Amino acid sequence: MTKARIVVVEDEEDIRELLEYVLTREGFAVTSVSDGRKGLAEVRKQLPDLVLLDLMLPGMDGLEVCSQLKQDEDTREVAVVMLTAKGEESDIVVGLRLGADDYVTKPFSSKELVARLQAVIRRTSTAPSQEDQTIQHGPIRIDPNRHQAWSGDESLDLTATEFKILHHLARQPGRVFTRDQILSAARGDQAVATDRSVDAHIRTIRKKLGDNRAMIETIHAVGYRLKET
Ligand code: CA
Prior knowledge:
About 40% of the residues lie in helices and about 20% in strands. By secondary structure, it is an alpha/beta fold. It has two domains: about 5-125, 3-Layer(aba) Sandwich (Rossmann fold); about 130-225, Arc Repressor Mutant, subunit A, CATH 1.10.10. It binds calcium ion (CA).
């Protein structure tokens, strides 16, 4: 198996060296750079599997790097995991909207970091399930053609909006979606979640999931995701 390639963009030397050490030890092929512009250039050159991107960077900040990568057809398939500090939740939300695949908050444990990166690489190397394909994820099953969902053996009585939300989350289990992204998916347009309607829908879906309610996880100040099983 070829090694998955990761570009690390981090300006703090201690953290950069730690990341290089940990990720190399775990079998990744790692290149690291210390500023945003160099990071962007390195990703364009290598087209790695993943870029681990600090947000506060000299040269060009991480959100701008992410935005440029996701807007460019050549680089948009490269997975982006943001490396964030505590209290940067609003930046995390912006980053996810720009197309970042996940984030890891500093300080992180090496074990958790590696698990998250492996999950993202796994997820992004397999295309999301087709719109009309039946999805089975843990106890949850969704048949878009019949517009029907089940929690275990139990058929769920979901409204059209609830169904769309659950379907959207289930197409990419483990991926965090912001409230805006969930609402847009449910309404099929660029909706702005100025209200708490998404929370209300999620609450109802959880209630209907019964014993499997914990399958939908709340990510504080960021959004929701379907639990990876
Ligand atoms: Ca930094």
